[in-house]
């Protein structure tokens, strides 16, 4: 995380990340349709209330505090997809007591195609949305990806106003 106007690191920024599983389901919402539910506060970040939690399980959600260099490192699985959405991660960055950035991070379509060709993703079937048809996709929010053995490393610089 960096301060947008000066590109200075933002130590101690609190970063929330949440995502769906390989089948497009958010934890706590296993009884909901794919893509329903998901945000830590029951809202999707755009002001629309989501479905009420359907179970107590919580996974693929996490909060980290940035180090002195403004860096946060998170380990997770590759997110699945659900109707009308390409794979993405939800992110909220908090400075002090205020949320100052709510965004989503995206993946290269070619990498997603490869991941979705393997189990357990393949069992979910072919996706209906690619980056260029997702209403929320922005090329600026696409992670830089690099293979690392049997996993992918993703990186992004988030500039907070």
The main sheet comes to: 4 strands, antiparallel
- The total beta strand count reads 9
Q: Return Rg in Å.
A: 16 Å
Shape from CA axes?
globular
Give the end-to-end Cα distance, rounded to a whole number of Å.
11 Å
Task: Characterise the protein shown here.
By secondary structure, the protein is mostly beta strands. The protein has 1 helix and 9 strands. It is globular and about 45 Å long.
Q: How are the SSEs placed, and which strands pair?
A:
Layout: E1 2-3, E2 8-9, E3 14-18, E4 61-65, E5 88-95, E6 98-106, H1 109-116, E7 144-148, E8 151-155, E9 159-160
Parallel strand pairs: 1-9
Antiparallel strand pairs: 1-2, 3-4, 3-5, 5-6, 7-8
Give a brief description.
This protein is mainly beta and 161 residues long. It is built from 1 helix and 9 strands; from the N terminus they run E-E-E-E-E-E-H-E-E-E.
Highlighted features:
3-stranded mixed beta sheet; 4-stranded antiparallel beta sheet; 9 strands; single chain; 161 residues; mainly beta; 5% helix; globular
């Amino acid at each position: 995380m960096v301060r947008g106007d000066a590109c200075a690191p933002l130590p101690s920024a609190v970063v929330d990340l949440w995502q769906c599983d390989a089948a497009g389901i958010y934890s706590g919402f296993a009884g909901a349709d794919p893509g329903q539910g998901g945000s830590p506060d029951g809202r999707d970040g755009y002001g629309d209330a989501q479905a009420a939690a359907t179970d107590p399980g919580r996974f693929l959600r996490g909060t980290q505090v940035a180090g002195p260099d403004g860096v946060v490192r998170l380990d997770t699985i590759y997110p699945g997809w659900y109707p009308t959405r390409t794979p993405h991660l939800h992110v909220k960055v908090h400075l002090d007591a205020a949320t100052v950035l709510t965004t989503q991070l995206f993946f290269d379509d070619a990498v997603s195609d490869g991941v979705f060709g393997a189990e357990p993703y393949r069992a979910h079937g072919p996706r209906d949305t690619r980056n260029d048809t997702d209403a929320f996709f922005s090329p600026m929010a696409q992670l830089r990806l690099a293979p690392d053995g049997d996993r992918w490393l993703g990186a992004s610089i988030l500039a907070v106003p």
